[in-house]
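Follow-up to my earlier ticket, as requested here are the two runs.
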Amino acid sequence: MDQALNRASFLSIAHDSALRAELVSLGMVDEASRDDPRAFREAVRDVLEQIAPHIQGLRDDPEFQQLSRDPQVQAAVASGNPLELLTLPQFRSLVRRILELSDAPPRAATQSRTVQRPPIAR
């Protein structure tokens, strides 16, 4: 996890105040993350730890498989700008679904610590 959170691509996100504010408004991270890159990093760590077991279950999910074949998604991934994915409604829908799943016990995995986070804005 530390390796991912220390990548240049993540650090550029963490230090982007507009993006942090947008992710707070989407309910993906807590309010403390809006003004503090370190708080944002910890919030993202908590979210990733919470949803990681559920992501494992998505591999066989038909919606995920369809999304991975979507030309727009493939172009966004190929662009080297993962934030472009957030502009795609179908990707945001899948992220929302993952976050909703994170409130339920994971299948065939141990539960990571539960993080209290604000509800997802719809």
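Run two:
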Amino acid sequence: MHDSDLISFWDEFAREYWERKPLSVETFFSRPALSEDDLFQTLLKCCDLTHGKTEIDIRLYVEGQARSVLKFYNLLPKAADSSLEGYNRRIESELKGQEYVLIVNYLEVNNFALWAWTREFLKALYERVGMNKLGVYYAVFLGNYHKTPAGVHHDPESVFHLPVAGQKRMRVWPEEFIARNPRLKNSLQYEEFLDASTLLKSPPGGFIYWPSNAWHVSEGIGEFSESLALTFNCFKELVRQLMINMEQHYDESKYQGEVTIPFHARANEQSSLEIPEALKQAAAFIQSMSSVDYLQRLWLKMITGSNFLHVPKPQEARAINQHDLIRGSSEHPVKWLQLAGERLAVSANGHLLDLPDHSTLRALIERVNTGGELQVGQLLEACCTDGFSINDGLSFLSQLQSIRGISKALG
């Protein structure tokens, strides 16, 4: 699409479709989110379970039944498959014709290019409808399955499905119809209700969309397909989501103690009214996770991370020397906030550096955000002041490179 066509499309989409009604578009992208080979290489990283627990969530279904990923580890993609087509051939052989679907959430953690591509896709949407509450993520669906194992179901999520290989077909119903016909919920037999549904179809290069109130089920034709679901959590309140975020940051080992707390049977003892230390510690943790300081950090990461729940991992930190040429981004600038305790929160691409506040840091950030090519030695000589050495500046630039706030220029 030309730029003028894209503007018109997004204007119409925001006005007529976002969180209102489903849509299918057969031709939209001049450049796909990722190629089949990119997807295969990304899935190899996601399905490598040797690194222990990660953000990645993997689900496998065979003939509609969930299978333990650990027990059926051999059914995940392997390097020896060479491609996703090779993976499918192996799995169909091992399963002797049984249908299967592999679902992997948060694959963007292992693919910065996919995340960066999506950031551009989201920009046009966010400018028109705002950021959803709370979080965006990718899920990949691949297999030879005929229908979603859950049947006709509902998630509080607004979804763009981007086919990678094979046609994606999704059938949707409005929530009002489901309310009148509750037998449809989680059903795989819905032929009598087809007239009330909408069948969405798209080949690679297009997309299908449905709002968070739609009930839906995927429909395949028994052929292997690969599709990315760009998923938007759509909650009308944020309390539950902040509680989930709080639980993710909770380290149980720091709050271990006895299973009982002191109790004084004699009610006239004033000491019986003192709040136990264990209760104070628990309340202090909850308070810390709802403080202005914490919320500022969270919001800063959400802004620079385009509202993704999980962003790509940082790069390995590499030394930067004074002869290097570096470049920042004026389009996706490094952002910072002054925090309590003379701290500076610096964020790029959904990551955050917590540093002692110094005017030199802010000066360096301002210069790299111009997007121009900068010679490191000259940059540091111009910005470093008393109390902030050249080595301090090199260390900061190295950290900034690891979260992709800057990159080395080719020169």
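The only thing I checked on run two: The mean pLDDT is 92. Let me know what else you need.
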